[in-house]
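Collaboration report, partner site 2.

Our partner group contributed sequences for two proteins of shared interest, and the home lab folded both. The records are reproduced in the order in which they were received, starting with the first partner submission.
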Amino acid sequence: MSMPIEGDYVYLRGVGYLAVKGIIHPPKRVIAFPKHPERKHIVASITSIDDAYAYLRETMPEAILFDDHSGQVLPQIPIEKITSHLSARGWFIRNTPHDELTRRALELAEEICKNSGVGLDYMGLSGSILLGRQRETSDIDIVFYSRMKAEMIMEALSDLRRRGVLGPVDAKHLHDLAAKRSDSPIPLHEWIRHESRKLLYGVYRGVIYSAKIVLLPSEYWEEYGSARWRELGRTTLIARIMDDSYAIYTPNQYGIEVLRVLQGPEESYNIRRVVSFRSRFAEQARRDEEVRISGRIEYDLKSKSFRVFVGNHRDDYLLLNQDYS
């Protein structure tokens, strides 16, 4: 079995389908969060991280372990326990569309291929279609791979948006965001303000699409074991984006300059990066924009550096500062 990465799913008998998170994993384990429980459970899908942990504590508590690299307690699935691995990459090569949604997904992929010069082998399909659980109202969850192809992909998405082939989400799509952001206290109008700017989230022929650009393991900004991050508490701060070169990826990170600390320890002024494993924070801000961040302040015992981690707590956010225009 090839090592699962972001966008893939794994299936465990007695647990169900789990969504793989991140690019690097602990030895002989895969970080993955329960998404679709076995049928004996009432809930069809799990939408929040808290519910994912609760479900795994019930069905496979031995998989919830402290990870020395990230400094977090994470669901770490032993490779030998994985019944099957559903790889997003290559879906368009392995499969023939058999309904309107999958035909539209292929059309979108081919439009991007034609405009970018990137082959279908650098694209994949995740979400409900990968699991074979799609409905007429489902989204298209497309995945692109490799930093080498990212610029071409973004230019193609920009051109397709400019020509009206793709459109931005707006207030008409609040129902979709309400489901996707049910675990966030941020008002929906604020999410729309951010999501409408994104090329990685939009509308194609009446269907909402969301896209991830995933780095290959050899391209990722750190190797497993190269850091030992430890939590110092929570922080809320105002910062300026200084580097957005990894902003479009999942996982994503931004270089920042802290302008003011609103809440949290004095060490918050030493933070130079904000990191998230959530695709909702990809393409969230651009260089020179002012942002408001709330998350977990972390210190790396190896590099002696600080960062703020966003995305694993209900109160986490990375938003354009309200006062910024």
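Second partner submission, folded after the first:
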Amino acid sequence: MTRIRSLAARALLALLLPAAPALHAQDKVVFATNWKAQAAHGGFYQALVDGTYRKAGLEVTIQQGGPQVNNRPLLPAGKIDFLMTGNLLHSFDNVKNGLPITVVAAIFQKDPQALIAHPGQGYENFAALAKAPVVLVAKDGQFSWWQWLKVQHGFRDEQLKPYTYNLSPFLANKSAVQQGYSVAEPIYIENQGRFKPVVHLLADHGFSTYSTLIEARTDTVRNKPDLVRRFVEASITGWYGYLYGDRKAANALMRKENPELTDDEIERSVALMKQQGIVDSGEALERGIGAMNEARVRDFLEKMTKAGLFKPGEVDVRKVANYEFVNRGVGRELRK
């Protein structure tokens, strides 16, 4: 009898007390990057370690890329949910090839692709680079932005030499120019060559693509727009936290994922991102990190078509990106 009364009391108490909020399972998301963990990925790791993704109802796994890893095919195959890709050239190719993929945010307002030269060799002016006897460019660059440099700025194929991501040929030849990621190679050059190189961002000379894009499958955008919105906004918030807040935990996780990284390299890279306005500049100042607009995408496509990378009408610019998840000023109050 005592047990029956106890159960009845519990039942009555449950009716009188306010209901506790239901515990919802986190949506599992796999986000793949295009290279090994580095400062240029910092905002995503920040959102992971500081709980921003979790607060958005997401259980996120970040899957690194790397020299022997190609994560691009995994997105259309449904093996990952979101992909970080380099710039709009990849996105134009997706549309050209009929892949059901769209851009949902542009974390970098400026592509960090740069041409780097020795100081004191007359290359302080960008136009002078077109007269350099040697320009070291990797194969993917030769078939993409190099074609634009020839049409727009008068560079010549006779200048081309292969860049194999080894700095030795550049360091040994003061008249040489080489490609580089503006937030990485200048640091390596200073460490190895003991001099501060001349760095020219292509973005400052008309290469107007967005960079560090977040891509999603079109069916995900169509069927799970709330999931896309939560991931994009949490990633944006993570980027504000990384640039302007305490990034120690994010850096520690990236160093664990990529042991080649050092704290010094990361911090110098972040300083360059801020100095060059890579993330938080231009449209992002008013519309928030991740901002993008169709007019700029269309302009860049026209430039690349003129450079011969695409045929007129080959890419439907309306299919390149979806703008409903950005331009809302999310996270701007975190800017310091």
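Feedback sent to the partner group on the second submission included the following. The chain has two domains: 27-111+209-334, 113-205. The two ends are 66 Å apart (CA to CA).
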